[in-house]
Design goal:
This protein is α+β, with helices and mostly antiparallel strands. It is 24% helix and 21% strand. Strand 7 and strand 8 form a beta hairpin.
Length: 246
């Protein structure tokens, strides 16, 4: 995708067939209204956005969180989202829904991160096994020992699309349909594995995209995350988003 033929053209390329878009020609710290609207549209389409070679990745990460939030106040945190196990925290309707996870790195010194598009998984299931999809509509599982029972299929609050929310392997037990969905969600056709480079900024929607680190990032890693915790959250008055440490 090329938005214009001028020197300021923006190019968009898929990271993988099922999830993610790389955006070139514009960075989140230099956006006009047209580019802001474009990124919000691309966010809905791709579920994840990658920007490379950002000179100020921490600032880009914070501003990208604001862009994707539709100018809703965001919570800025140094906590790295996700873990070494598959996670999709945005599908947990019992907690405030995070709009985006955004990670940036100055050095590229982070373990690889795999993203999996769960809307694409549902689309594939419609084509290949409608009977399994019908059975999945009635399945609910807890994702933690004391967590509530949550549906395997959930509705994205913005797009209203049906998203697969597979349970952890340990929670699936011996349920054949649940185990099949867990295996399906991890198939390479739905995944993108990101190997970090200096200046990378990667954002994903944790309500539609599962994530898994190759290994848990160490405390103090060169990472910066922005998560919308709730519409009432506010940035610290004495810490503008671009001054948050990377």
């Amino acid at each position: 995708m090329r938005t214009t033929a001028a020197d300021d053209a923006v190019f968009v390329e898929p990271l993988a067939p099922a999830v993610g878009l790389e955006v070139r020609g514009v960075t989140p710290d230099a956006l006009d209204d047209e580019h802001t609207a474009m990124l919000r549209d691309l966010w809905q389409v791709g579920g994840a956005l990658l920007f490379r070679n950002c000179e100020r990745p921490a600032r880009c990460a914070a501003l990208l969180g604001r862009v994707l939030g539709g100018d809703i106040l965001t919570t800025v945190s140094a906590t790295i989202p996700g873990s070494a196990e598959w996670a999709m925290v945005g599908a947990d309707s019992t907690s405030p829904l995070p709009l985006a996870c955004v990670v940036a790195t100055k050095t590229g010194n982070l373990p690889a991160l795999t993203l999996a598009g769960m809307e694409a998984a549902i689309d594939a299931l419609r084509l290949t096994d409608s009977d399994m999809l019908s059975e999945a509509k009635h399945l609910h599982f807890a994702h933690s020992l004391d967590g509530p029972m949550l549906p395997v299929l959930h509705q994205h609050p913005l797009s209203n699309a049906t998203i697969l929310y597979p349970p952890p392997r340990r929670a699936a037990g011996k349920d054949s349909v649940a185990l099949a969905l867990v295996r399906m969600a991890e198939e390479p056709q739905f995944c993108y594995r990101h190997v970090w480079q200096p200046g990378d900024v990667l954002a994903w929607d944790p309500r539609a995209v599962r994530s898994k680190w190759d290994r848990t990032p160490t405390e103090g890693s060169a990472a910066f995350s922005v998560v919308r915790a709730s519409s009432a959250s506010q940035l610290p008055a004495n810490a503008p988003e671009w001054e948050m440490p990377l």
